TrEMBL record:
Listed CDD domains: Met_dep_hydrolase_A (cd01299)
Family matches, as InterPro entries: Amidohydro-rel, Metal-dep_hydrolase_composite, Metal_Hydrolase, Metallo-dep_Hydrolase, OTAase-like
Transmembrane segments: none
Name used for this protein in its record: Amidohydrolase family protein
Ranges for domain Amidohydrolase-related: 53-401
Lineage, broadest ranks: Bacteria, Pseudomonadati, Pseudomonadota, Alphaproteobacteria, Acetobacterales
Pfam (any one): Amidohydro_1
Length: 412
């Protein structure tokens, strides 16, 4: 089926401003033509956009589809079937908000991805690293201290979000296992975190040999490693060893940001999750130990955006929201707009994230040959980025691969 979009303002995923007087033709699953002149098509259904903004489908590069509870330790004790059903609802809600692609940052699996790909779940495209790798006592180790000695063997236990792997041999086997199960990238823990109760934020996780092993194994599959890291030491170390994507990076300093830019590493800040945790965490079951660690990373958040931007680091868009806080996914746009230009924030969620996902030119842009992942927005997101917030009320049309997934646009 072909669709011809007219009477629109265009954000193409790369520009600083909206373009007027453009038309866009979609044939099949891809964009056929983008023109500042009328496009002729004998077969296309004409969509009068009513002056709305047409732009690429949004991409969130840090979600946890199975992060259905603020207490990740509790998630690990839930039935996998329940996790999958709740994950499906989270994916559907992201699509309604205009997110046509997601990169899960730990937990999602090939079954969930296939369900999205085949339409069993009407959700976004799902890129995933499988379970995140954590050393014993690391950010992904959610086991109660009392039961640590009950587990043994390589990469045990196997949890919903992460798995424990210690030493080069276990890391190698775990990486190969996740790649075999279709992982698009590999996630490791390189510093302490908020959601895990026992590890300090400043704690280094994984030895240089273990990180280098994960990087080599991923690169052998033409993939890459993303690392959870907050502090300058943990970030610099990970990037020096070949990690391509740094998640969070709240406490980054200027020299470390400059090193990231020199090496071509991406940063994926997730500021909305700290605001949500501060306001809702205790009521939703976040452990007191986690709340105590929150302030240090939350307070540094906006400053980290400025540091990364000045250094020229490629910044993707992520959210990292758990449980019921997932509804705040699009609030990340407004938070970033406090210190960054609107166009830069929009590029982070479109063309920059597409490059991060190794999908440059296919996703995140409105251009001939790109996949027809498109949204229509009521209003001008350059002038007021807040039009993207909420639950999709101002996004009446969402297309994924040429198929209308949400369509509230009148045809006559």
């Amino acid at each position: 089926m072909a669709m011809l979009f007219r009477n629109l303002r265009l954000f193409d995923g790369r520009a600083d401003n909206l373009a007027e007087g453009m038309e866009v033709l979609v044939e099949g699953e891809r964009i056929k033509e983008v023109s500042d002149r009328p496009i002729a098509s004998a077969t296309a259904q004409v969509v009068d956009c009513g002056g709305r903004t047409l732009m690429p489908g949004l991409i969130d590069a840090h979600v946890h589809a199975y992060g259905i509870d603020a207490d990740l330790g509790r998630v690990e004790r839930l039935p996998r079937s329940l996790q999958a059903l709740e994950a499906a609802e989270r994916l559907k809600s992201s699509l309604r908000r205009g997110f046509t692609s997601l990169r899960d940052a730990g937990g999602a699996d090939w079954g969930l991805a296939i369900a999205c790909e085949t339409g069993l779940i009407p959700g976004p495209r799902l890129f995933y690293p499988g379970r995140a790798l954590s050393p014993t006592g690391g950010h992904g180790d959610m086991r109660p201290n009392a039961v640590l000695d009950q587990f043994c063997g390589c990469a045990a236990p196997a949890g919903a979000i992460s798995l424990v792997a210690d030493g080069v041999d276990e890391v190698r086997k775990a990486v190969r296992g996740e790649l075999k199960r279709g992982a698009h990238a590999i996630k490791i823990m390189a510093s302490g975190g908020v959601a895990s109760p026992s590890d300090p934020i400043w704690a280094l996780q994984y030895s240089e040999e273990e990180i280098a092993c994960a990087v080599w194994e991923a690169s052998a599959w033409r993939s890459y490693v993303l690392a959870h890291a907050y502090t300058p030491e943990s970030i610099h170390r990970a990037v020096r060893l070949g990690v391509r994507s740094i998640e969070h990076a709240n406490q980054v300093d200027a020299p470390t940001a400059a090193f990231m830019a020199e090496r071509g590493a991406f940063a994926v800040p997730t500021l909305v999750t700290y605001e949500a945790l501060a306001e809702e965490g205790p009521a939703l079951g976040l452990p007191p130990e986690s709340m105590a660690k929150l302030a240090g990373v939350r307070d540094a958040g906006l400053g980290s955006l400025e540091i990364l931007d000045r250094a020229g680091v490629k910044m993707g868009f992520g959210t990292d929201l758990l449980g019921a806080m997932h509804r705040r996914q699009s609030d990340e746009f407004v938070i970033r707009r406090q210190v960054l230009p609107a166009a830069a924030v929009l590029r982070a969620a479109t063309s920059v994230n597409a490059a991060l996902l190794q999908q440059e030119g296919s996703l995140g842009v409105v251009a001939p040959g790109a996949l027809a992942d498109l949204i229509l927005v009521d209003g001008d997101p350059i002038a007021d980025i807040g039009v993207l917030t909420g639950q999709g009320e101002r996004i009446p049309f969402v297309m994924k691969g040429g198929a209308a997934m949400v369509d509230r646009v009148s045809r006559g």
